[in-house]
Structure formats: structure tokens, C-alpha cells
Amino acid sequence: MSYTLHIGEKNYSSWSARPWILMRQAGIPFTERVASLAQDAGKAARFAALPGGRVPVLEHDGVLVWDSLAICEYLAERHQGLWPADPVARAWARCICAEMHGGFAALRSQMSMDVRARRPQRERSAAVLVDIARIELIWGETRRRFGAGGVLLFGEFTIADAYYAPVAFRFQTYGVEPAGEAAAYWRALLALPAVREWEAAGRGEAALPDHDLDRLYPEDGPAPARAQR
């Protein structure tokens, strides 16, 4: 099997983080190709060969898979253990990944990913607070129901942990401190080797002026920003 994963910059691309962290943590070999998210004259050409003009894209033996959740499912069909083995737990895992994939619009738009930034928010919108509360509920309830035998959502590492890793980065950036079971999970997620590797690489990248929070919002306080691929 020969995989190539096309991603954006690690500091900013939350969607790219999910399959990258999944493959790295699960030990699935792949070649990485970075298509810069910079809003410059060459962006259209960089993304022209990628379906939908977005990242991530998984390339495998001539097949292109261009949606982060579809990539995870494609890999799960070829590598055992990426979803929980128990059917009830597996259904739950798919539900919480789908909810993250299609929801949490306020969190995406007002807490865009910037791994190296630290922008504690003095104020958060009501919609963001609802999103944060829902995520804490998902983490806590999943751990209580399915987390025996390990520190992650389903005990051992699964697609669900990769799917919530960008949220862990956002909480770190914007000073969100979960409580109780959710807090323990948040710390465990940030400590995963693949998550730490992604974060370290993101910190080492050059800043993109049109994405970087510290350049867009030099003053302290809330930093609303657009959602990013």
C-alpha cells in the first residue's frame, strides 16, 4: 500500500490534522505533501489538481479521497482497530465524529485553529459557549460509557480521538479549560505522540499573514476569525 496525504500548514489546517494524526498515531506509513494555504497568486495552481480545491486529500494507488471523514473511513476499511470493536461503541464513535464534522459552526468561525498562538478570550459568544459545553458533554459521557481500559475516549486510540484533536488545540489556544472527566481526556489527547508531533511541526512553520492570529489581532482579547481548511 502506498499512501500520499495532501495537507495544509500544520499550524492552521484543522481538517488536515485529523487524518494525519490518525495515520501517524496508528502507525500507517504515508508520504506527506503540503499545499500552502497562503492567499497568494499561486494558490489556485497549487490546489488545481486536488478535488474540490481543498485539503486534506488522500492518494492511494490512483484513488483520491478528498474529505477528512471519508479518508478516515477509507483507512478503517483497510486497517483494523481504527474504530472501536464493539458495535455499540463503534456506532457512538461514528455519531460523535459526524457531529464534529458537520457541526460546531460557532467554534469553527470564532476560534479558528492556530496551534502556536495563545489568545485567551475575555468574552465568548453565547453560541461558542453552547459548542464548548456540548464538546465537554461528549467527552465526559463517552469516557464514562466506553473509556474503561485507557485514557482516551474509547480507552484505546481511535478515529474519534484524531477527530477531536483540533478541538484540543483550539481549547489550548483560546484558554478553554474543561472540567472533570473532559479535562483529563483533553490533557491525554494533547499528550499523544502524534498530536505532539503535529503541534511541534506547526510551531516551526512560517506564519501566514492572512491566517496568523497574532498578526491579524495584535491586541489581547477575543480574536474572531474565519473557519479554515
Written overview of the protein:
The chain is α+β, with helices and mostly antiparallel strands and 229 residues long. It has two domains: 3-76, Glutaredoxin (3-Layer(aba) Sandwich); 87-214, Up-down Bundle (Glutathione S-transferase Yfyf (Class Pi), Chain A, domain 2), CATH 1.20.1050. Helices cover 49% and strands 7% of the residues. The protein is built from ten helices and four strands; from the N terminus they run E-H-E-H-E-E-H-H-H-H-H-H-H-H. The protein has helices at 14-26, 43-47, 68-76, 87-102, 105-110, 126-146, 159-174, 180-190, 193-204, 213-216, and strands at residues 3-7, 31-34, 57-60, 63-65. Strands 2-1-3-4 form a four-stranded mixed sheet. Helix 1 (14-26) crosses helix 9. It is globular. The two termini are 27 Å apart.
The tally of beta strands, per DSSP, is 4
For the largest beta-sheet, the strand count, sense and barrel status come to: 4 strands, mixed
Spatially, the strands of the biggest sheet line up as 2-1-3-4
Q: Helical region count?
A: 10
Question: What is the CATH architecture assignment of the largest domain?
Answer: Up-down Bundle
Percent helix range: 40-55%
Amino- and carboxy-terminal Cα gap: 27 Å
Strand portion: 5-15%
Structural class call reads alpha+beta
| Overall tally of structural domains | 2
CATH T-level topology of the largest domain: Glutathione S-transferase Yfyf (Class Pi), Chain A, domain 2
Low-pLDDT segments, ≥5 res: 222-229
Short characterization:
Helices cover about 50% and strands about 5% of the residues. It has 10 helices and 4 strands, in the order βαβαββαααααααα. β1, α1 (about 15-25) and β2 (about 30-35) form a beta-alpha-beta unit.
